[in-house]
Write a structure and sequence with these properties.
Blueprint: H1 8-18, H2 21-29, E1 44-45, E2 52-53, E3 61-65, H3 66-72, E4 89-92, E5 101-104, E6 120-124, E7 127-128, E8 142-149, E9 163-169, E10 177-185, E11 189-199, E12 204-215, E13 219-220, E14 229-230, E15 233-246, E16 249-262, E17 295-311, E18 314-332, E19 337-339, E20 344-347, E21 362-381, E22 387-407, E23 416-438, E24 443-464, E25 475-480, E26 483-496, E27 501-512, E28 515-517, E29 527-529, E30 532-545, E31 550-570, E32 573-598, E33 601-615, E34 620-621, E35 651-652, E36 664-676, E37 679-690, E38 693-694, E39 704-705, E40 708-719, E41 724-731, E42 739-743, E43 749-752, E44 757-765
Parallel strand pairs: 6-9
Antiparallel strand pairs: 1-2, 3-8, 4-5, 6-7, 8-9, 10-11, 10-44, 11-12, 12-15, 13-14, 15-16, 16-17, 17-18, 18-21, 19-20, 21-22, 22-23, 23-24, 24-25, 24-26, 26-27, 27-30, 28-29, 30-31, 31-32, 32-33, 33-36, 34-35, 36-37, 37-40, 38-39, 40-41, 41-44, 42-43
Length: 766
């Protein structure tokens, strides 16, 4: 499908017409009413490692403010609540509240191994969070969240050929102040977020913030000798920051930690109706018969120091961080009970669809040891001269162990009966530079260059083959030492048509280091994906309209990724393998708009179109393994839509869209505020839409997620000049239910989206 061609001028006029009609009419008939209508605040972003007005940055950036985060987090949701809230962003997880996977413009990674890498970088308070155990840190007491689309390979330290999610927490200040935000909702969920800022002296200030999120179990398992209740969690996080500031020096010191206990994602056997992507008849959220155990724990911590020395015309930055984590997740991957191969009755059955569990699959994966250390030194100009520059060096070191376990579901206590282990030591260093030059007051050009050197030292071994005696049938050890170097660059230009409107263009390259898939618990080999390289071209506009009561940004883009790293399943084995596609291409556009449409009404609209395609006629994969069990039960398995590959049991994926990459994503909010009595009533509704997408590399009727529209509603009343507020909220207010992910090696096992939640909030500021 060709990408629609729409000019920036037409887009600006269309959005302006759609949003501020009432305001424009009021201006024409009553100019004096103009002073009664507030204006949109300027958006300041730091994606260029400088604090700049959004209109002056030649990047496609969306910013999410702290007020919006309060709304999305109301019901205790985790980082996945940001999915679809800005254009071209998708976030999902097969592990629940941990191990989120990010996709920008369709580029992401579906790998569920705990050593997986991702093409979307996550930067939390200027520190790269590389491991999957670090990426899901709770989002609380934030100043701002930014999504930087497209390759960010010159200024940010690790794999980011698709983009960067940048989280910036609120920093210590000079006033004694704070807040407490308490929410209570369905399933006895509690969401408590609090922060206090304390000035300690003329030079020192401190900010302490924390969050507690908990929920009772909402899913019951009626079978004995297994986990009885699931989907509950207890998630706690704390952040302590101390800021020291004198003339010529600033030091920001941070300690943060997370402690999570709960259950992993509930995999539900045979809930996809064969021949469709519908839920089976008789599906129930609260009913989950399984013969396995389910638990999940995560502890992580970070100590960091961000230092700045100011000199004549320049500043030196040092960012030092040490991260560590321990993670464990166990679940019943087959999603049901019994085993046809074992002669044990299997299920559950649903009306019109008999269950099939060929074999049990109860596994666990853990990270008993993770140590990440990073260091960045950055020297950059601090003048108002036409030429601005940045020079820096970066170092990354990660030491990681990944354990994989298998369990016997049919022995008393479900004892362990399999084990494999991976070790990895990853090191990377880079030098980088960036310049920004004002050719004229209206035309500014930027250029960046980065050299990166990556090395990994990896080993994996299976010391206990499932179903056999330990240390008898040892497989491995396997060793790998991939390494690569890369030059990344970008060129950009920003031209101000006037004070309200700017045009920008950017060409950029991105790079992801080689990846290793060493999940050898069910396989006898490891796989290595070569480094991937992306080239992206984009252009757009940013405009403030109608006396700064409306704002719109628009971007058109096209990218190509060579040697794209993909994760392929292994048929009827609970195993992944890494492959490189010769090429993948994507193109589309994004629109981000906000407007004050009347004195008491505000609205936002985000829209993105992403057309992605794998281009490799020689690439083929094994599709759903459950289709191979026809001898156990006729008509089982999925209906594959791709053409057969060159080998029996394979299909070609040439021309397929990238997995988990919806073509259309849009979001819309409408906010009404009015004074009542001595306070203010606020009503806010927000809606997010995702188009259909393939769950895997291949296409199958059952494994194509439906398009989804989910909405939220919040009604609040604040008084005492905003010091106090009470509110009621609901998320997924239509209770839309559908399969959003699946397990394809055993049966038609699915993962379902979160059901409707609701509750009340009370917030106090001081």
């Amino acid at each position: 499908m060709p990408t629609p061609r729409v000019s920036p001028t037409l887009l600006a006029l269309a959005l302006a017409a759609a949003f501020p009609v009432q305001h424009a009419a009021a201006q024409a008939t009553a100019p004096e009413a103009k002073k009664d209508v507030s204006q949109l605040e300027a958006v300041i972003v730091t994606g260029s490692r400088r604090a700049e007005n959004l209109k002056e940055v030649p990047l496609s950036i969306s910013a999410i403010k702290s007020e919006e985060l309060d709304t999305y987090n109301a019901s205790g949701q985790d980082i996945r609540a940001l999915s679809g809230k800005v254009p071209s962003l998708n976030i999902e997880s097969d592990f629940g509240r941990t191990f989120p996977r990010f996709y920008v413009r369709g580029l992401g990674n579906t790998d569920f191994d705990l050593n997986a890498s991702q093409p979307v970088g996550l930067v939390y308070d200027d520190v790269v969070q590389e491991s999957v155990a670090l990426k899901g840190f709770p989002v609380f007491d934030m100043a701002q969240v930014e999504l930087l689309r497209g390759p960010q390979g010159t200024l940010f330290g690790r794999n980011s050929p698709a983009g960067v999610m940048k989280f910036d927490s609120a920093k210590p200040g000079k006033r004694f102040e704070g807040y407490a935000n308490l929410g209570y909702g369905r399933w006895n969920s509690v969401n408590l977020e609090t922060a206090v800022n304390v000035p300690l002296s003329s030079d020192w200030s401190m900010r302490v913030a924390g969050i507690v999120q908990r929920q009772d179990n909402r899913v019951h398992n009626p079978l004995p000798n297994a986990t009885s209740d699931l989907e509950g969690y207890n998630d706690k996080a704390l952040r302590v920051q101390a800021l020291y500031k004198t003339a010529g020096f600033e030091g920001l010191f941070k300690v943060q930690a997370r402690d999570y206990k709960g259950t992993a994602t509930t995999f539900r056997a045979n809930i996809i109706k064969r021949g469709t992507n519908d839920l089976v008849d008789g599906y129930s959220d609260s009913y989950y018969p399984t013969d396995g155990y389910n638990s999940q724990t995560l502890k992580s911590s970070e100590v960091s120091a961000r230092l700045r020395w100011d000199f004549d015309g320049m500043s030196l930055y040092s960012i030092t961080a040490f991260d560590r984590a321990k993670f464990y997740s166990r679940g019943d991957v087959d999603g049901g009970f019994g085993s046809r191969f074992g002669g044990i009755k299997d299920g559950p059955d649903y009306p019109g669809q008999k269950a099939l569990i060929p074999f049990d699959a109860q596994t666990a994966d853990g990270i008993p040891y993770l140590r990440q250390s990073t260091q960045e030194f950055r020297l950059q100009s601090s003048t108002a001269d036409a030429l601005q520059w940045i020079l820096g060096v970066y170092y990354f070191n990660e030491k990681l162990q990944v354990d994989s376990f298998n369990y016997d579901s049919f022995a008393t206590g479900d004892p362990q009966n399999g084990y494999a282990v991976q070790h990895q030591n990853a090191k990377s260093w880079a030098t980088f530079g960036n310049i920004k030059y004002a050719v004229t007051p209206d035309l500014k050009v930027t250029a960046g260059l980065r050299y990166t050197d990556d090395k990994k030292d990896f080993d994996a071994v299976r010391t206990w083959t499932p179903g056999k005696a330990p240390n008898v049938d040892i497989v491995g050890p396997f060793f790998a030492k991939p390494k690569s170097t890369n030059w990344s660059w970008d060129l950009g230009a920003n031209y101000a048509l006037d004070k309200a409107t700017s045009l920008f263009a950017r060409v950029a390259t991105g790079y992801r280091a080689p990846s290793i898939q060493g999940r050898v618990l069910f396989g006898d080999s490891i796989s290595i994906a070569n480094s991937e390289k992306a080239l992206s071209v984009e252009a757009g506009f940013k405009a403030d309209l109608l006396d700064n009561t409306a704002r719109i940004t628009g971007t058109v883009f096209s990218y190509r990724v060579k040697d794209l790293q993909l994760t392929a399943g292994s048929g009827s084995t609970n195993q992944n393998r890494l492959v490189n596609a010769a090429k993948a291409e994507g193109q589309g556009f994004e629109i981000d708009a906000q407007a004050i449409i009347a004195r008491d009404w505000r609205t936002t609209l985000g829209f993105s179109y992403n057309d992605t395609k794998i281009k490799d006629p020689n690439l083929f994969v094994q599709p759903c393994g459950n289709a191979g069990f026809q001898f156990l039960q006729a008509g089982t398995g999925c209906n594959v839509l791709n053409a057969p590959g060159p080998l029996p049991g394979t299909v070609s994926i040439n021309g397929n869209p990238l997995p988990r990459a919806p073509k259309v994503v849009w979001n819309w909010t409408l906010k009404y505020s009015t004074e009542i009595g001595d306070g203010e009533l606020t009503v806010l509704t927000d809606w997010a839409y995702k188009d259909k997408y393939n769950m895997f590399l291949y296409e199958a009727t059952e494994y194509k997620a439906k398009a989804a529209l989910e909405g939220g509603l919040r009604v609040g009343y604040g008084w005492a000049a905003g010091k106090y507020e009470v509110a009621a909220y609901s998320r997924n207010i239509t209770n839309h239910r559908q399969v959003i992910a699946a397990i394809d090696f055993n049966n038609l096992t699915g993962i379902v989206n979160e059901p409707r939640s609701y509750g009340v909030q009370f917030k106090a500021n001081f």
